Structure formats: structure tokens, C-alpha cells
Amino acid sequence: MTSSDHRHLLPLERVASDAEVATAFSVAARVTLGQLAAAPGRPAAMAPFDSLLGESWRLDELRRAGRPIVGVLCNFAPEELILALGAVPLRLDLGQSDAARAGGRVLPADVCPAIKCIVGAELAQLPYYREAQLLVVPTACDGKKKLARVLGDSREVFVLELPVRKGGPRSPAAWVEQVRALADRLQRLTGRSLRRGALREAIELLNRRTAVARRLNELRWQRPGALSGADALLVFQATFVADPAWWVEKAEALLRELEARPAATGDRRVRLLLTGSPVLFPDFRLLQIVEAAGATIVADETCAGTERLHHPVVVDEWTTPAMLRAVADKALLPCTCPCFVSSDDRIDRLLELARVSGAQGVLHHTLRLCQLYDLELPAVSAAARQRELPLLNIYTEHGAEDAAVIQNRVEAFVEMLQQ
Ligand code: SF4
Ligand code: SF4
What we know:
The protein has 419 residues and is of the alpha/beta class.
């Protein structure tokens, strides 16, 4: 999508203060990382992830490599495809109050903070936004659909059209067609054609990343105190921007350090399962409040955590069409985003996660004005009640104003579970 697709443009008007958002974002990232680093006994192997998200942002490496950068929102664009075609996929979702404020200046008030953050990051030209040559925007919710329109006036946007039902009669073929169209667009961007060997290599690399993420999660379930929920999400969200081979190496080093430690005895921290809207770096306040209240997030059912990394690409045969279908299937079928008609698989998944992780309660995070998660809340609450799993829903937006209320509610919930 380019401005030539529209007769009526929606220009994003920049103002001088937008330039300050980049500094505010860096400061917020360093504050969050500094607070996490101050936790006693934090694994030394967390340092590379801190440095990636707080300092280097991989920018020098990306500029040196000269590969086109493809910014993606959500997890629907198959990263395997982008890598195989010689580009660099970077997931650009973020959570930061100054970016949300900047986006809020040009958007109506009743738009969710996630959308405002993205528009604010575009206005401020945060580094990854500045470098991305193409933005892939899925039609996941009304906000994302309109985002494609708003951003598409000033930059190259590929609109990835999602089916409303994953199992609908026309969905599989239409979805594979979308992924093929994305491959065509990427081929034009990179000047490369899709090679079987390159696609296989990318699939195998990201499947290795999945295997390591699974081992990390299993360790969290077995030894809840070993890694805080915030650190786990930090490691998972590092995959938004990290080179996958680098991430596998650093995450394996973290695993080795954690496995070598003696298991803690007598840990009485309450185990919680996190679900709902993604908790996005650098706004990790909710996770930090949970830890301070005496609980640990031992598992999560969120698109910015476990759900991004848990599912491997399953290939029947190593031909290019079969691999293309397999990466398309992986990006769509296991996804538990509430943008589809049914929420059954999301609820099944979170109950299963609660079982395997030994969670004592569910923390449901709803970004204010996110109708998708709000509308699913009654069904999720009812399912949790049936399993006698207490559930606390917390509404948040980015900013310090709601911190005291969130803290009181989380503390009361944790205290109730401790009894
Ligand atoms: S919940 Fe769905 S729409 Fe929202 S960021 Fe995640 S994948 Fe995208
Ligand atoms: S938080 Fe909700 S409304 Fe906002 S982008 Fe995500 S799914 Fe859409």
C-alpha cells in the first residue's frame, strides 16, 4: 500500500516534541532494565539481552549487513519467509507512555494504547521504524486495519489479510494465497527469489529457537523462582529484534546457568499464569508489581511471550510449496489472538498452560479500550471458575497514573491466594 492507493490522504503531522519520544523511549528502556538487573541473584546470562534492548539495538550490525529491514506487527507474517528472502524481520510492537501520548495527539481518544504507541513510534521515527523499508500489518482488529491505512500514506505497507475463522471453508487456501503474495512483495524488495535451501535453513533455525524457548518454559514450571516472569518475557521479547542464531546461543547459555544452580527449597511464592493483551517492553510495570507482591508469573498465554515462540513449523516434505504451506499454517493455526470468531482454542490453551505450570491463579491483562480481550473475558473467567482457578483482570494503559490501583489489586489477589 502506498499513498498512490488513496485519493484522500491522512498525513501524519509531526511536531517538534515528537523527536523527544526517542530519548524518552531509551530512558524508559534503561530504567526498566536497571530495575530488573537490581534483583538479587539475577542470572549473569541475562546481560546480553539487557544490552540488546537497552544499548545496541543491533543497529550497527543491521546497517553493516545492508539487508532490507521488514517491520512486522503481531506474529502473523512468517519470519521464516522474510529470513529466507534475505531480509531482516523486526517485530515493532511496543509499550511506552510517551509514544502512546504522541500517537494520541493524532488519533481519536478511544483508540487502544497499543495502536497509539505504534503511531507515536512512527511519528518519532524510533530507530527501527526509521530503518524499516516495508511494514507488514495484519488485519487483526479494527485498530490494526486502520493503522495500515494511516501508516500506508507515508510508507510502504503490506496489508496481511487474516481470515475471520481459522477453520472456515475458504480460510486455508485464502491464507496461503496471502503468504504467497507477501513472498512476491518480499522478492521485489530484496531482488532475490525464494530458494528451497534458504527456506529450509530458516525453518530449521527458527525451530531451534522454538525448542530452546520450550526448554526455558519447562524450567520455569519446574523451578518457579529460577527466572522472574519479567526476565522470561524480556528474553522472549528480545526475539522481536534479535538475530535468531544469536538468540539461540544466548538463551542456551542462560539455560545452562539456570540448570547448574541448585533448586531452591521452600519457595512459597504464588504461581500465576498471565494472559490477555501483550505486556510490551519497556512497560513491564505489571510484571514488576506482581513480583514485588510475592508472586511469580510462571507461564503466559500472550502473543509477546510464549505464544510467539512455542509452535514449530511442521513440514511434511521439503519442497518449496509444502514449506510455504507449513510456515503459513504455523503463523495462523496455533495463534490464540482473540481476533478470530472463536475463543475456544485460546481457553483450552490457557487451561492447559495452567495445568502444566501448576499456576494457582490467572492474571488477565486488558489494555484499556481493547474490545477483543474485553469481549472474551466472560468466557475466560467462566472457564477458570470451572477449574477453580481464581482470576484477576487488570486494565492498564501506559503511564504511572494507574500504578497504585494496580498494586493494591494485585497485592489483595496474591494475599488471597497465599491463604
Ligand atoms: S493480541 Fe493479536 S492483535 Fe494484539 S498484538 Fe497480539 S497478535 Fe496482534
Ligand atoms: S490491544 Fe486489542 S485493540 Fe489494541 S491492537 Fe491489540 S488487539 Fe487490537
